[in-house]
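Hi support team,

I submitted a single chain yesterday and got back a structure, but I'm not sure I'm reading the C-alpha cell output correctly. Could someone confirm the output below corresponds to the sequence I sent? I've pasted both exactly as they appear in my results page.

Thanks,
R.
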Amino acid sequence: MHWWASIAGIVLIYLILIDAFETVVLPRKIRRSFRIASLFYKKTWRFWTSAGAHIKVANRRENFLAYYGPLSLIVLLGFWAAGLIFGFACVQYGLGEHVSLGNEKITFGKLVYLSGETFFTLGYGDITPNNPAARALAVMESGLGFAFLGLVVGYLPVIYGAFATREVEISLLDARAGSPPSAAEFLGRLGCCPDQTVLDNIFRDWERWCADLLASHISYPVLVFFRSQHGNQSWLGALATMLDVTSLIMTGVEGIHPDQAKLTFAMARHAAVDLAQVVGAQYSPHDEGRLPASELSRLRTDLARNGVTLKFAQPAIPDSSLGIAVGESAAEPERLTELRALYEPYLHSLSRRLLMTLPPWIRTDHKKDNWQGGPWDRAIQARALEHPGRPIDDHF
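Hi R., thanks for writing in. Yes, this is the structure output for that exact sequence:
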C-alpha cells in the first residue's frame, strides 16, 4: 500500500475544500497568508496584465482586461474540481488493489478516470470498487461532486447579481458627473439646485452604494476584477469621484451643509481602505497628487461659472490688518489636503493593482457623455443636413 499517496491526497482535498469554503461561502476577509485562491489570482493577474501590456490601443487593452474577471472565475472553479479529482485518485491509489476492470491492470491513470467519473456522477460502471473502504470513498466523492456542482450553479448568479447592482449607480453617475466622472462636473451640474435635500438624497444613495460595494467585494473578491460596461467608467472611478466631491463639501461650499457628505465620505473611505487590502495593493510614497495647487484656481473658476462657490475661493494671507482672522482662510485649503491624504494613497494603490484609471478632478476634454453618443448619430445628423426642416423621425 502506498500510504504516502493517501496522506498527500487527503491534504490536497482539505486545502481545496477550505479554500473553496473561504472564497465562496465565508462572507469576510481572510487574513491567512497562504491561500490557493489568492495565489491563483496573484499569478494569473500578473500574467494577464503582462500580456495586455503588448496591446497598444487603449480600448482594445481595456477589452482584453475585461475578460479576466469572468474567465478567472471559471478557471478557478475548474482548478478546484481538478484538484479534488486528483486528490481522491491519490487516496484510492494509497488504498491498494481494491477496484476491478476486467482483466486490465489498474494504473494511476485509470484511478484518475475513476475519480473523475465518480466526482461528476457519471456512473459508467466500467471500473468498480470491490472492498468497503473503496466503496465508502466513492460514495463520499460522488456526494462531494454533487455538492460542488450545486455550489457552482448557485455561485454564478450571486456574482452577476452583485455585479449588476454595483453597475446601476455607476450608470446613473454618467449624466450627473460626466464620462469619465469628475468632482467639478458633479458639483457644476447640480450647482443650480437650491434644495439641499436633493444633494443629500444623492449622497445617501452613494453611501449605501459604498456599503454594498464593500460588503459584496469582501465576500466575493473576484468582483474587483470585473470591469464596467464602458471603458471610461469603473467602480474605482465612481468611488474616487464621491470621495473628491464629499471632501470638497466638507472643506466648504457656500449654501451646502456637510452633514450627509461626512457620512458618505466615511463610508467611501472605509471601502477604499479595505478593498486595497483585499487585492493586496502596495503603498507608494512617490504617487503624485491628483489635484496640484495650480489646479485649485481653475477648479474654483469652473465651479463658480456653474453657481458653486467654494469658501476658500479667495486665498488670503492671514493678516489682522486686512480684517482676516489668522488661520481662517489659510486653514481651509489645508483641510482639503488633509482629507485627500486620507484616501488618495489607497486609490493610487488600487489603480496600479487593477490597472484602472483614476478620474480627474476637472475634465480637460469636451467629449460627450456616454448617454449622448450612439452608433447612428452621424447618419442621423448627415440625413438632417440633407433635408433641413424635415422631422428627424421621418429621415429613416
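A quick pointer for reading it: The chain has two domains: 3-130, 161-365. Let us know if anything else looks off.

Best,
Support desk
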